[in-house]
Amino acid sequence: MTTWTAYGWIVTCATAAGVWAADYDPTRDPLVNPASLFESPPASADRIADEDWIIRHLRAEPASLNPILTSSGHELTVQELLFDEPVVLGPEFEWMLNPAMAEGYSEADDHLTAELRLKAGLRWQDGVPLTAEDVVFAWQMIRSEHVPAVRARAATEGVVDCRAVNPVTVRFRFREALPTNRWRIKFPILPRHVYERGLSEDPTLSRSDTHVEANRHPVGNGPYRLVDWAAGDRIVLERWADYAGPRPRFARVIFRIVPDGNTALLMFKRAELDEMMLTPQQFARDTRDDRFARVGVKGRADQATVYCIAWNMDGTNPFFGDVRVRQGMSHALNMPLILNTVYDGLFSRSRGLFPPSSWAFNGDIPLFDYDPTKAAALLDAAGWQVDSEDGWRYRNVVGPDGTQTRVKFAFTLGFAQESKTSPQLAAVFQQDLRRVGVDMKLQALEYLTLRGRVFTHEFQAVIWAWTAEPEPDDAWNLLHSAARSGGRNFVGYANPDVDALLEQGRRSFDPEVRRGIYRALAAKVYEDAPYTFLINAPSLWAFHKRIRGVHFSPMGPAGFYPGARAWWVPAGEELRGTR
Amino acid sequence: MSPNRHSAALAVRDLRVEIRTREGIVRPVDGVSFDIRPGRTLGLAGESGCGKTVSALALMRLLPRGQARISGGSVLWSNGDGESVNLATAAEQEVRRLRGRRLAMIFQDPAAALNPVFTVGEQIAEVSRLHLGLSHGKAMRRAVSLLSRVGIADAARRAREYPHQFSGGMQQRAMLAMALAGEPGILIADEPTTALDVTVQAQIVDLLRGLQSEAGMGMLWVTHDLGVLAQVADEICVMYAGRIVERAGTRELFANPLHPYTQALLACVPRLHRPAGTGGIPGSVPTPAEVPPGCRFHPRCALSRRLAVELDAELCVNTQSGSVLRRCVDEVPALRPVGADHWVACGEVAS
Amino acid sequence: MVRYVAKRLLLAGVTLVGITIVTFAVTRLAPGDPALEAVSRGGASTMSAEAYARLRTYYDLDQPLSRQYAAWLGRVVRLDFGRSFHDGRRVTDKVGERLPATLCLAGGAVVLSLAFAIPIGLASARRAGGVFDTVAGGVLAALHSVPRYVMAMLLIVVVGVHLDWFSPYGLRSDSFEDMSYPGKAADLVRHFALIVFCFAYPLIAYQARFIRGNLLEVLGQDYIRTARAKGLSERAVLHRHAFRNTLLPLITVVGLLVPSALGGSVILETMFQWPGIGQLLFQAMTQRDYPVVMALTVVAAVVVLLCTLLADLTYALADPRVRYA
Ligand SMILES: Nc1ncnc2c1ncn2[C@@H]1O[C@H](COP(=O)(O)OP(=O)(O)OP(=O)(O)O)[C@@H](O)[C@H]1O
Ligand code: SF4
Ligand SMILES: [Mg+2]
């Protein structure tokens, strides 16, 4: 790891020599969010380049391009251009039908069944007709015991039956009547004629040569088809001329697999990449040289990613079961300083459970202010008294056998060592807590190890993050007391009021009522502080300056409809592929 | 084949060699003169360390570069045509032209002197290719015939073998074949038999003698073994501590050894009626860094000590090794003629 | 000879099994596992204990370690390295498709380093202690002390990005297919140059010094005097007689350097976007792709053992003294 630290250091020195911005202000950087980046395409098609190639950044090699097996963002990036799904995520995270594939969706009055109607005459890229049977087949595979379809399986929870009524109509049956049911039928589809082969020998869809080959060189139905996959190097897609939807804008889309972010930025500056996600450090510092300005612009927008500190309340430590302690912690954290120094002024402060892009967002929640005195008072009230001798806080704790032991307020904060910001944040927080007599130790862990610890509840506090789902009902899995085992309630949070709100929220069919419930929920959870909410991470991207038509959804510039399909290059500005 | 092969000669005059060592500059060869005459064998005898090898190498200008150099004297090579080169001062290129072609040399330890990674045939052929301009094939065929000429059976197969597959005697034969490949007029043999078994020694001696008379080469035979020289040499130089102390025809030297050192050496040669001198000559050859003044042999000289007992005390001087003649310590005896073709460097013998 | 080889092979086999046991234990006992990796990858919504348990079964991770190892070993002796946990592909395919890139690199580095090291070594030995020897020795020692990744970074940033003389990333350009033959060749050179140099420069320093030292030793040998006595020029003496004798130990040294050079490929391949086995190992480690890690361990160990063995054997075969012993 020292190698990589030194490596990063050299990159910083070499590319940003002398450009040290203590206070970086993205609103005054001329390269950020130029109007051209967001420009809509002209009405006349001949003013749009038709033969250009775009080279996109993949930060890891996809495991598979089978859409029901994929789960990582980088896999979705490729797969969404190869496969069209009937139901898609809209630009603002709304549920929508894919205009190229689906004609209608209707739910029965009891909300227990629904019908999805496909367009007639759809085809797979190998010419075989695409019918309702393919949708049903995909659903069966997703629900199969043998197929490791992690993400798709979680997404389809609650759909108990799926069958084809006729070649263009699929009927779904749901376990319960819920307003969120229509999200449950948003799942990928598979070419049945391809995957049915060899299913008896390999019910996992992932362990035979036939299926592995199908996963690697998939027959899709999207705007592009795969022409080459050079392991560890690049994946090349070509425009599918017979695509049913709007004509794909690029003749080729090339994905370069570049795991290292520093390398990717250097490649971008060499015009070997046309787009990439930037780290805050890269956005604020490493992109201020004229090598970058010659080729690129930057885009920045809010994103639905929430950073927080998670407090373990499952009873394995004597500290965080008490709400006053959690609130005290939240007051002790010097957020203004952290926003300025650690996050370079690029991140906005989190206002609770839901990001501003969500319809459930509550902007009226009073935030914890930075107030060491208030923090100290709360800790005092919780029984943690400062020892006049050493200055740390102690409390008598009654053990299970009734004996009393004096316990020092000392705990460990875990965070991912790969993160650029978490170590700094942890260091600042450590100072803040020392000021109020709490001894916090730091533990940097490999990301996967950290996840494992959280998964098995072996932690006291961690810096944690997630990207909020479009549907606020997702919070059920995070906060409901029933989700402590099997769900994502790793902190062991149990609050009857919160449980009740979560239940109400998932049952009401009135959007306004639901909005009210979730606003109340957000306020309640913020105050109760099972998590100390830190920031909403922004989307930070670099684009080649010829690229237009970018839109930032709450998940970034791609991963929704139309997303990357809407990008275009003005005729005459082609960089590649003009033969 | 070369017309004047039988008249090549080497005249060495006042040859001096300097070697740079850690202790300073030393002169292991210090004013040596002798002649290698056409078709004749000159023997160079002396104990180990007296400077025989250094002299021989100096003739070929093969002294270790950067370390040793010829600091004086001349080594005049001539053929019968009046062409002559002073090897002591000639340009490197000129010397290279003669080496292996006009003068050849064989060494004491044939196992080390042959390159382990080339076949014997290749190593022999290299000389004919270089000096006679033969093609690879021709040179190899010639190497085979040279090998059979030096008495190696099945030469064609043996030529393709590597040196370590040869016995010591065969290695020396191979070296000889290599030396003969350039058809030299002069052959320098530095202890050619010392490293070999006694029976093999005799074979090599016979072979060398035969070849020499057959090819009519002038030859320098370096050895510490006077017994061998008795068989092969026409004339013998006895060397001690970098100088020639006695020079005479072979028969004369064995019949009438005059220098005390020669006498002592001869006493060590095994004869039929007498075992080899027990323990050799008392004392050892001084290293070039610590040569004694005057006659370099005086610390070990029996004559000087005997005379010191017989003569007056004022003619004597006490040294670490006992009482010796003052003259032997003070004066450097020159090589002076004492008879027809007999020269000695000893003040006492001459007077 | 046959007995010697057999003994060496047997020993190599035992070493190999030992290495695999250690690697197996270390990778499996390290925190995190592929099921966790898979379940984490999908983001928040997919992380459930139920999904995790299902995936552990899918990957056979719920078996005892000893049984997992025995099963693995049983398959490997039949040359079946199993399927990657990451993408289900045959491990042999995954390793096989990347081997050429790394072998080209190692081969290119050896050839390039020898192309520099041999002339430098010869010239240095010719006038040991002379100006060239001193300057070359100093420059090479300085080069040798620069860590590979620092050199790589400097070359990438300065020569690759700023001067744009070479392409530091990957094997070829995106438009490679559309190039003419000379264009393709030039493109390959532009991509190979920097990374091959990064592999080669420490080897140059090491080999040049090795050649020089060995030549000086050989130059003191009797057979060199014999060669001079033949009337050969200094050049012929050095290049033919002396160099031929240093070639054998050089083969051994190169044989031993190749595995250590491959060790550097993990960092260099990642930095240069080189789709070789070093990069694959790096990915497989982060993904906890045990079958791939194990296969690469076996490949690496076999390469090391084979190189050592081959170096010994080549030495034996090339040196007539050993060959006929
Ligand atoms: N390269 C050298 N460096 C230092 N001293 C040397 C070197 N070569 C020879 N000498 C010294 O010069 C002296 C003469 O050595 P030389 O090899 O000529 O003896 P030699 O009469 O041939 O003896 P031997 O019978 O042992 O071969 C010895 O004292 C030896 O130590
Ligand atoms: S000069 Fe004196 S010391 Fe020398 S040999 Fe003659 S008698 Fe002996
Ligand atoms: Mg000698």
What descriptive keywords fit this protein?
heterotrimer; B: 351 residues; alpha/beta; eight-stranded mixed beta sheet; four-stranded antiparallel beta sheet; 14 helices; 25% strand; C: 325 residues; mainly alpha; MetI-like fold; 2 domains; 77% helix; binds adenosine-5'-triphosphate; binds iron/sulfur cluster; binds magnesium ion
What can be said about this structure in brief?
Chain A has 579 residues and is α+β, with helices and mostly antiparallel strands. Helices cover 29% and strands 22% of the residues of chain A. Chain A has helices at residues 2-15, 35-38, 73-82, 132-143, 150-155, 181-184, 192-195, 209-216, 261-269, 280-286, 290-295, 323-332, 335-341, 372-381, 422-435, 447-455, 475-479, 496-507, 511-528; strands spanning 53-58, 87-89, 95-97, 102-107, 113-118, 159-166, 169-174, 224-230, 234-239, 252-257, 275-277, 296-311, 348-349, 385-386, 393-398, 404-408, 410-416, 439-445, 461-467, 531-544.
Description:
The complex is a heterotrimer of chains A (579), B (351) and C (325). Chain A is α+β, with helices and mostly antiparallel strands. Among the domains of chain A are: 146 residues, Dipeptide-binding Protein, domain 1 (Alpha-Beta Complex), CATH 3.90.76.10; 234 residues, Dipeptide-binding Protein, domain 3 (Roll). Helix content of chain A is 29%, strand content 22%. In chain A, the strands form five sheets. In chain A, strands 11, 12, 13, 17, 18, 19 and 20 form a seven-stranded mixed β-sheet that branches. In chain A, a hairpin with a 5-residue loop joins strand 15 and strand 16. In chain A, helix 18 packs antiparallel against helix 19. Chain A is globular, with a radius of gyration of 26 Å. With 351 residues, chain B is an alpha/beta fold. Among the domains of chain B are: 74 residues, no CATH class; 92 residues, no CATH class. Chain B contains 14 helices and 14 strands. Chain B has an eight-stranded mixed β-sheet, sandwiched between helices. A four-stranded antiparallel β-sheet of chain B has the order 2-1-4-5. In chain B, helix 7 packs parallel to helix 8. Chain C folds into two domains: 76 residues, no CATH class; 225 residues, MetI-like (MetI-like fold, Orthogonal Bundle). Chains in contact: A-C, B-C. At the B-C interface, helix 2 and helix 4 of B face helix 9 and helix 10 of C. Adenosine-5'-triphosphate (ATP) binds next to strand 1 and helix 1 of chain B.
